[in-house]
Amino acid sequence: MDVDLLVIGAGSGGLAASKRAARHGAKVAIIEGDRVGGTCVIRGCVPKKLLVYGSEYRELIAEAPSFGWAVQDALCNRAMLLENVRSEVNRLNGIHLKALEKAGVELISGWGSFVDAHTVKVGERLICASQILIAVGGRPQRLSMPGGELGWVSDDLFNQKDFPDSITIVGGGYIACEFACILNGLGVAVTQVMRGDRILKGFDRELAEAVQEGMQELGINLRFGLQPTGLQMNDGQMELICGEEHLSADVVLQATGRRAFLEGLNLEAAGIDHDQHRIFVDQHHRTNISHIHAVGDVTDRVNLTPVAIDEGRALADALFAGGTRVVDHDLIATAVFTQPELASVGLSEDKARERFGDEGVRIHRARFRSLRQSLPARGPRCLLKLVVEQATDRVVGCHMVGSHAGEIIQMAAIAVGMGATKADFDRTMALHPSISEEFVTMG
Ligand code: NDP
Q: Tens digit of pLDDT for each residue in 356-373?
């Protein structure tokens, strides 16, 4: 065997597993056909969040006069913002490359393809491994409709020199909503098209409605109940066809989900069980072939960076250090970096009612305009919500829309994970004046 562990894919899960395995003394190689860092670092969470910060200045500048600041001729140089974001991504890519080198993990550049259950081919090179980890992540999914290939997917946004002046975004999920807010903040005219009747379907309905209101107030044109059936160019504009309705813009962005990136892996050669959407694994991330494993988005469990990292580390510990930890996929906090921001841990009100019945659930909420927004007397209102199991008083869902919701819910997740009750929340002294104090003072 050439290596103890061969990892395919140098994204969040693959990098975490390879470095941890090397630290345990394993001989490790990692294969990557694109840039080291994966979706999160190169074309996802990191550049996206930097663009969120950039786009938030529009509202800050609009509110500045109420705090005594005179701001004149504030214009965003979007090309410069994109360039600065790319530089930061390059810096992080360099850090990841150095970290692999320092850990003693060999980086093999190219696309990996199974030859048999112990051998992977990259170009002309064959690598034989005792253990193999597939951590290739996912890819944006285009709509299968005529002209679908003309539109952009989220990857394309980061490669632009400048953003267009107008855009039609298809989808109502994480990526569609986040980019609708980013682009709107950067002065792009945004129309967002959904087939359903609301945005952010998987989230607590009331919270999603609060975000929806906020987005509409900022000028985003939300269109519901429209199913795209085609895309065509017309006079240099992209025209999205939704039955009778034709929506024109400089660009159409398809943010309609992501799918496991299985092309070219030749999983059949190793006999690995999968379907179009995922590689099947057990709770120890093992496929049907006992020495082949998979973590992260390619397994389509909870498709979030920290989950992939945790799965990768747990796997490396299990393979090379006798670890037995099973990754807990319950109670994972998540945020949508819209404007206003939404963050959530635990059950939505609807899910809690399904589980405990209407009488088994108590809801506490606070909706208010924060002190921060009092002088401008504008901007989205905050919504904080606790979902409590009536029989035990346990907080089973903690949700927020408002500034720093992600930062706040990250900490609340510790309490919810520990099984805190509403009485525990109430016993906690408020930190005043803050937004999150409402979580411990709401009746
Ligand atoms: P989502 O699954 O969140 O949303 C997909 C959207 O596309 C939904 O609104 C869905 O509609 C719509 N859609 C799907 N198929 C069609 C179709 N055929 N016609 C019309 N509309 C369609 O996917 P995203 O692409 O937004 O994000 C992918 C994943 O990336 C997320 O699930 C998340 O795991 C991760 N992510 C996480 C982020 C974070 O943590 N902040 C940020 C970005 C991504 P409907 O609701 O009706 O099904």
A: 999 999 999 999 999 999
